[in-house]
Write a structure and sequence with these properties.
CATH class: Alpha Beta
Structural class: alpha+beta
Number of strands: 18
Strand order of the largest sheet: 6-2-1-8-9-17-18-7-14
Oligomer: single chain
CATH topology: Anthranilate synthase
Length: about 375
């Protein structure tokens, strides 16, 4: 039986057509999509991380906060689920249609990363790693697809739900500002039933159905660096009472990853959630070690601003529940194109050709869904 409601694509299309700010999302293993609608005055820029301690709503946090990429706190005016009737949702939200404001239409210059560009960038990073300035750094690249446009967002979202049941699937749209869609395999932070969880997810091997999975020394080291970083964050936040599970092999679509879970009592960060999240982001899984050196190298090497790629997003509420995920396996709609973002961890043992292939495998998460839509449309 197909548990994905048939009308979610139509709901998304209706919200797009009427210039409504919204996010729809489905948490891992859930059956239904939640839909939050935001009037303009319910969209706020994070000023202080203490605001997250009692916040209820949707958080959209960039990789690196700067003048162009700010952390957004989105408070829903209405909440729906995908089982609600299209006509009911439309009647409720039309009053919140955004008016076209040219001042909000920022110019975005995103360059596709060629294979030659990528090799120049990765060799620069490997040199610094071998000079022992860094233990690890994450290099990402952008891939522009002009065959898919925002009018297909509903179909892509619906197919991602069907294909990646263990992922956090979302589509966030703020008219004239930003539109992002993805299926993240990586939990960033969860609080539920008086406990918190965070996860180290690193190292990647293609899932070809093989029974014997062999991890290289490079991949084991990469995973260990992320785990050690999380343990250091826990220690710096005065958290010594925690359970560690892993590393173990985790499946994410067409990929295998190494995963380690850390669980600790919520009371240890009660009233300090925002401070904890600030110290946790960005982990070596998306940035590197040492963090400040890696961030500087990323910003001077990559040929674009990551914006919300490899940031974190999800739901918090002041009743102590929360589900935040790393913004991976995602794309951004810009003008009449979709920009896909992929990356991978680089160490001194990295081989450029293999790292390039890893990013190609990661891109398949979204490309495989897009190609199904294009095939159905006769392209």
């Amino acid at each position: 039986m197909n548990n994905i409601p048939e009308n979610i694509s139509n709901i998304i299309t209706m919200l797009l057509d009427n210039n409504i700010a919204f996010v729809c999302f489905r948490k891992p293993e859930d059956q239904d999509t939640s839909i939050y609608v935001f009037p303009e005055n319910n969209i706020h820029i994070l000023q202080d991380y203490n605001e997250l301690d009692n916040f209820s709503g949707f958080v959209f946090h960039p990789f690196d906060i700067n003048k162009d990429s700010r952390a957004l706190l989105l408070k829903p005016k209405y909440q729906f689920c995908s089982k609600d009737k299209l006509s009911f949702i439309k009647d409720s939200v039309l009053a919140f249609s955004f008016k076209n404001n040219e001042d909000k239409n920022k110019e975005q210059k995103i360059l596709s990363t060629s294979r030659d560009d990528y090799f120049r960038q990765i060799n620069k990073m490997i040199k610094q790693l071998r000079d022992e300035k860094l233990k690890k750094v994450v290099l990402s690249r952008a891939e522009i697809n002009t065959d898919i446009t925002i009018d297909k967002a509903g179909q892509i979202y619906e197919n991602l739900e069907k294909t990646y049941k263990s992922a956090f699937v979302y589509f966030l749209h703020i008219p004239y500002q930003c539109s992002w869609l993805g299926a993240s395999p990586e939990l960033f932070f969860k609080r539920e039933n008086d406990y918190c969880k965070t996860v180290a997810l690193a190292a990647t091997i293609q899932n070809t159905g093989q029974e014997d999975i062999k991890w290289t020394v490079k991949e084991k080291v990469e995973q260990a660096l992320v785990s050690e970083y999380l343990e250091d964050v826990l220690s710096r936040n005065g958290i010594s009472e925690y359970k560690k599970n892993g590393p173990f092999c985790a499946t994410a679509g067409n990929l295998f990853h190494l995963k380690t879970e850390f669980v600790f009592p919520l009371k240890l960060i009660k009233g300090k959630t925002g401070h904890f999240l600030k110290s946790l982001h960005a982990t070596p899984a998306v940035c590197g070690l040492p963090k400040d050196v890696a961030l500087s190298l990323i910003n001077e090497t990559e040929n674009y601003d990551r914006e919300y790629y490899s940031g974190f997003l999800g739901v918090l509420n002041k009743d102590n529940e929360g589900h935040l995920f790393v913004n991976l396996r995602c794309l951004q709609f810009v003008d009449n194109a979709a920009v896909l973002y992929v990356g991978g961890g680089i160490t001194s043992a990295s081989q450029p050709a293999m790292e390039w292939e890893e990013t190609r495998h990661k891109a398949r998460t979204l490309l495989s869904v897009i190609e199904k839509i294009q095939t159905f449309a006769g392209k």
